[in-house]
Amino acid sequence: MANSHPDAAVASVSSAVVRPDRDRYPAVMWILLAGNLLVRSAGFAYPFLAYHVAGRGHQAGAVGVVLAAYGAGWAAGQLLCGWLVDRYGARSTLVSTMAVAAAVLMLIAAAHSVPVLSVAAMIAGLTCDTPRLVLGSAITALIADPRHRARLDTWRYGWVLNIGAAIAGAVGGLVAEWMGTSLLYWINGIVYATFAVMTVRCIPAGRYRAATPVTAHDRGDYRQIFADKRLVLLVASGWATLTVLMGIFAVVPMLMNASGLGTGAYGWVQVVNGVAVAALTPLMTPWLSKQLAVGPRLDMLAVAGVWVTLCMGVAGIAHTTAGFSAAVAACSPGEIVWFVVSAGIVHRITQPASSGRYQGFGR
C-alpha cells in the first residue's frame, strides 16, 4: 500500500472529484454507491456458504465450523479494515482487500476439505465487507447535514444493500440449482476483482476535504475509541440486533434445508426480503430524515431491535417457503429503522480522523 499522511478520514480520493458547492452529494459518493451495489449483487459468499459446504458432502457440524470461521473473519475485518482506511486511505484499502477477496473466493470454489474451506472463509469474511465500511466512512467525512446523511444511509441500506441482496438471491438460487454453488464463488471473485480495477480507475489518488476539520487531538487509536462509552454501548446493542438479523443468512438456510427446501427456495426468500426493504425505502426516507435531524432517537433504535427479534422468532417456527418469506418480509421496517438510526449515531460521535475505525467498530 502507498504510504500517506492520515489526516483525512477517508484518504486517497482526489479533491477534484468533490464539488460540494455545485453538487449536494460529492461524485465519490455515487462511485462508492455503485461499487457497493455491484459487489452486493454478486455477494453469494456468505448467503450460499452453508449450501456450498453441505454440497461438498460435509455434515451440519462442519457447516457450522466454516460459517463460524467466516463470522470470525468478518468481526476482525471490521477493526482491521477500519484502521487501514484511516491509515492508508480508501483507495489503497479497497484495491488490496478486493484483490485478496477475489483470490480466496475462487479458492472456496475449488476447495473440498473443511480446513481449507474454513481458512478461506475466514479471509473472505475479513475482506468482503470493506466497500460498505468505506462508504459509511466517506459519508461521515464528507456530509455534515444529519438529514443528508440519513438519506444516504437509507439509500445504501434500503436500495444498495437490499436490491443487491435480492439480485444475489434470485441469481444465486437459479445458478446454484442449474450449475452448482462453485460457479457462484467464481462469479463473486471476478466481481470483486472488477471493483478493484474500478477503484483504481475511478477513484484517483489524492485528498479531499473532510466536512469537519481534523485536529491533533482527534488522531487517536483503538484504545481511545474503545474508551468512548457511547460507542461501546451502541456496539453492545448492535451486536445483539445484528446477531438476530444475520439469522436471515445463517439460520434460515439451515432451517429451510432441514425442512427439505433447496437453494432455489432460499434464493426467493432473499428476494422477498430485499424487495420488501427496497419498496419501503422511498416511503420511510423522508420520515427518517426528519426524525434524525432533531436527535439520535435511541427509542426508535430499541423498538426496531425488539421488532426484528420477534420476526425472526416467527421464522423459527416456519416450514414452508411462504412462511419463511413472510417472516423476513416482516423484518423489513425494523431493519431499515435500526440500520439508519444506528448509522446516524455513529456519524454524530465519530472523531474526524478516525471515521474508518468508528465505522469498523461501531457498524
TrEMBL record:
GO terms for cellular component: plasma membrane. One of its GO terms (molecular function) is transmembrane transporter activity. The keyword NADP does not apply. It is found in: Cell membrane. InterPro entries: MFS, MFS_dom, MFS_trans_sf, MFS_Transporters. The chain crosses the membrane at residues 27-49, 61-85, 92-111, 156-176, 182-200, 231-256, 268-288, 300-318, 324-346. It is a multi-pass membrane protein. Residues 1-363 form the Major facilitator superfamily (MFS) profile domain. Pfam families: MFS_1. The keyword Membrane applies. Keywords: Cell membrane, Membrane, Transmembrane, Transmembrane helix, Transport. PANTHER family: INTEGRAL MEMBRANE TRANSPORT PROTEIN, RESISTANCE PROTEIN MDTM, PUTATIVE-RELATED-RELATED. This is MFS transporter.
